[in-house]
Specification:
It is a single chain. The protein is an alpha/beta fold. It has helices at 13-21, 75-81, 94-105, 112-128, 147-157, 207-222, 233-241, 247-253, 264-289, 296-305, 310-313, 320-328; strands spanning 7-9, 41-47, 50-56, 60-61, 86-91, 132-135, 163-170, 173-183, 186-191, 225-232, 257-259. The strands form two sheets. A six-stranded mixed beta sheet has the order 1-9-8-7-10-11. Strands 4-3-2-5-6 form a five-stranded mixed beta sheet. A hairpin with a 2-residue loop joins β8 and β9 (186-191).
Length: 332
């Protein structure tokens, strides 16, 4: 499915697993290892009203006994029964239908973005048709982005001929990174840390200084940066699921996260985040100094009309930081 125009290089197995681990669902405020919490996922395949296969990502293939041979329950009930953190109930043939439609509708000139959006659209069609049931539905209500929206966002973050990079550090060393370079047709290079570690030179053990060495090494291999995001891995893990207003803005302000450079398209959602924090703080003050509730409603109305959130949000089709939190948070 990958476009022939995209090069994917510089990832060891460990580096790639680390990148994927950043998007593992977590509960806000919890430690990485929660004793007793549901783990893994379970997938059920059914046909003609009968359960055909049952797989658990941790336990492997499960036995389909007589008590389970009826039409599978909902994905949520299936997850609860097998103590899993996610579940999928799939009608036999649904995945084959997606692949067949994908092959029929893909065109030779389609780039990676067009192919990815088509695949997501076909999967959503099967979901809406009831042939696939997923739980939890973290992105329920989030509209399917059009190619124009995605391309516009991509262009605002990564200019033609430029590169964006996310670099994460741990214990004074580069933990993992991913750099993406764009040409006129879209992304043409996805570069991992294995290619740049040896080019970073002698590190000081302080990521707030060492990120400059990573930026330089990426620019030498992939071109000028249009966006750089650098932090410790644990900081990003916490921010991804932090629901408190202004969490990302505070982290940038105290240099727990360093953005260098930062395009306007990312400065806008950070401004929204800071606006939410200020709005939340002022509301709390109004409630505290006016326990009777005479002044507080007026203060809220004035602050909301100021548009710290709505006017900024109108400039973007979505709030990327909130979308990230919805995708990763274990909150139901």
């Amino acid at each position: 499915m990958l476009s022939p125009d995209v090069r994917f290089e510089g990832f060891t197995a460990t580096d790639w697993v680390r990148v994927l681990s950043l998007f593992r669902p977590r509960r806000p405020g919890s430690e990485e290892r929660e004793p007793g919490r549901p783990r893994g996922g379970v997938v059920a395949v059914h046909s003609a009203g009968r359960l055909r296969k049952l797989m658990h990502t941790d336990a492997g293939r499960l036995r389909v006994d007589d008590a389970q041979r009826g039409l599978p329950r909902s994905a949520e009930e299936l997850a609860a029964r097998h103590h899993a953190s996610w579940a999928a109930v799939i009608e036999a043939g649904a995945l084959e239908t997606i692949v067949e439609r994908f092959g029929a509708r893909t065109r030779r000139g389609d780039d990676l973005l067009a192919q990815s959006l088509l695949l997501l659209q076909l999967a959503r069609e099967e979901l809406h048709a009831g042939r696939i049931d997923l739980w939890p539905a973290r992105l329920r209500g989030v509209p399917m982005p059009s190619a124009g929206v995605v391309r516009g966002t991509q262009e605002s973050l990564v200019g033609v001929g430029k590169t964006m990079v996310i670099g994460l550090f741990e214990g004074g060393e580069l933990w993992t990174s991913i750099a993406m370079r764009r040409d006129a047709r879209g992304l043409n290079l996805i570069l991992g840390p294995d290619e740049v570690r040896k080019d970073m030179g002698l590190l000081a053990g302080d990521w707030r200084r060492d990120y400059r060495h990573l930026s330089r090494a990426i620019e030498e291999r992939a071109g000028e940066l249009s966006l750089g995001c650098f932090a410790e891995a644990e900081t990003i893990r916490k921010l991804e699921v932090d629901p408190s207003p202004g969490a990302w803005a505070r982290a940038v302000a105290v240099r727990d996260v360093i953005l260098a450079p930062v395009p306007a398209a990312l400065a806008i959602p950070l401004g929204i985040d800071a606006g939410r924090a200020a709005l939340s703080a002022l509301r709390a003050i109004a409630d505290r100094i006016d326990p009777v509730g005479i002044v507080a409603p007026a203060v809220r109305a004035v602050l909301e009309r100021a548009g710290t959130d709505s006017e900024m949000a109108a400039m973007l089709p979505f709030h990327p930081l909130e979308l990230l939190r919805k995708l990763i948070s274990r909150e139901r």
